[in-house]
Amino acid sequence: MENESNSLNSGEMIFAAIYSLSQKIMMLYSKAVLRETGLNWQDWRILRAVVSLQSCRAQDICEESGIKKSHVSNGLARLEECGHISRVENKGDKRSRIVVSTEQGQELVARAQPKLHEFEAQISSQPDVGDPDALLSNLRSYKDELGRQLDRNEPSTTPQED
Prior knowledge:
- The chain is mostly helical.
- The chain has one domain (2-123): Winged helix-like DNA-binding domain superfamily/Winged helix DNA-binding domain (Arc Repressor Mutant, subunit A, Orthogonal Bundle).
- 70% of the residues lie in helices and 7% in strands.
- It has helices at residues 2-37, 41-53, 58-65, 69-82, 103-124, 132-151, and strands at residues 55-56, 85-89, 97-101.
- A 3-stranded antiparallel β-sheet has the order 1-3-2.
- It is globular and about 55 Å long.
- The two termini are 34 Å apart.
């Protein structure tokens, strides 16, 4: 019974450590994005997706960035207001609009991305992290396995979204 209790505590501690680590990394990265671009993290991810995809719909940005459609829509409005993107009529589908990056948006990404890559490398090269590529691969495998379990409805309850 004691081993079972310790393993539950170990599992909970792993979950708590992953959550805490992700929160700290996101805070650091969000501050770096704000410092380099003047944008919040979500708007930066949306702009990067638009620049990468070149011409896309909001739905494509959701798939590329992993951000919910309502957040993408709000972010697109802010980015358009700042002059980083423009939205034009979609001749193939009147219900959606095509999103393109402006020269200003492309320049912002080109200017900020190298500095943010340096920051990412700095965070990844911390002592005891090991090989960042191997760590990322392991975390993705773990995420994929959890996704498969969720698809099989295991466990039967899921935490509520924030």
